[in-house]
Amino acid sequence: MSVKIDLLRHFILLAEEKSFSRVAEKIKITQSALSQQITQLEIHFNCKVIDRSTRSFKLTKQGEILLKHAKEIVSSFDETTREISNLSKELVGTIKISASTIPGNHILPKFIAAFKNKNENVIFNIQIKNSRESLADLKNELVDFASVGSFMKEDTTIFDYFPIYSERLVFICSPEHELVKTKKGNVEFKDMRKFPFIAREKGSGTREFAENNFSRYSELNNTLEMNSNESIISAVSNSSDISIISEMSAKKAVNANLLKILKVSDITPLERELYFVRKKGLELNKVANEFWSFLRK
Fold first, then answer.
1. What pLDDT digit, counting tens, does each position of 237-269 carry?
2. Which residues fall within 8 angstroms of residue 149, CB to CB, at 6 or more apart?
3. Does the residue 37 lie in any domain?
4. CATH of the domain at 16
5. Looking at the 3D structure of the chain, how many domains does it have?
6. Rounded distance between C-alpha atoms, residue 122 and residue 251, angstroms
7. Which pLDDT score, from 0 to 100, does residue 1 have?
8. What confidence tens digit (pLDDT) does each residue in 159-179 have?
9. What three-state secondary structure class fits 98?
10. Which residue range forms the structural domain that includes residue 261?
11. Cα-Cα end-to-end distance for the chain
């Protein structure tokens, strides 16, 4: 039995994430399918690569050896692909992107679809993280690009970047919230201060931008942090909590009657840019360079 390169990629990712559920979600397969892939590796090498006798995720000694060489194999394979694709007229290769929630889930997919319509043999590997984690991936050269809503106080001189979208952050609450029933969603900032506020986690571009561009952010009654817009929407729609999220995410939830966008009369709208970023000095393959140029147009 031969071992497919994707099995090694998934094993490396599993060793990094230490979670079958997170990896399965990222690569868009079931946990059962991922577990079967690991079993295939264990059958091929006739050993256990994950220690299943402990509650926490741990590789066996054989698994550590496999991880070391899997990284070398995948790196060599990608370099071979890069060199061959640079000689080929047809674009072939993989583009790796680490993106925060809004650009990763809502902005980039339409550009990727348009690019793949003309270059069907290009593969995109997108990991959805927060802005801080995405920039860290780029700095560590784990990906070709990052797409973020904030540079998180990073030194921007080490990056090349350009805006790919402008959006607004909005305050949200449940359609059944007291502020909707008594004020029809037309409020002043003081009206919101008494209600529990759900913030994004530290490292989120949304939180970073709000903290730096909204002087009264610290006055909000912050009682809870969540690491995704989806979890915030779910929590807000069933409580008296309020929050601030991307207008793009909010509108979809409003259309589903899960949220109400609050109109705050004494606050200047919070508008931000979303960026596409690469690291200066990082050599990209032909495919990645073409996608960079495609987006800039």
1. 999 999 999 999 999 999 999 999 999 999 999
2. 100, 102, 103, 131, 205, 206, 208, 209, 272, 273, 274, 275
3. yes
4. 1.10.10.10
5. 2
6. 32
7. 46
8. 999 999 999 999 999 999 999
9. strand
10. 167-272
11. 45
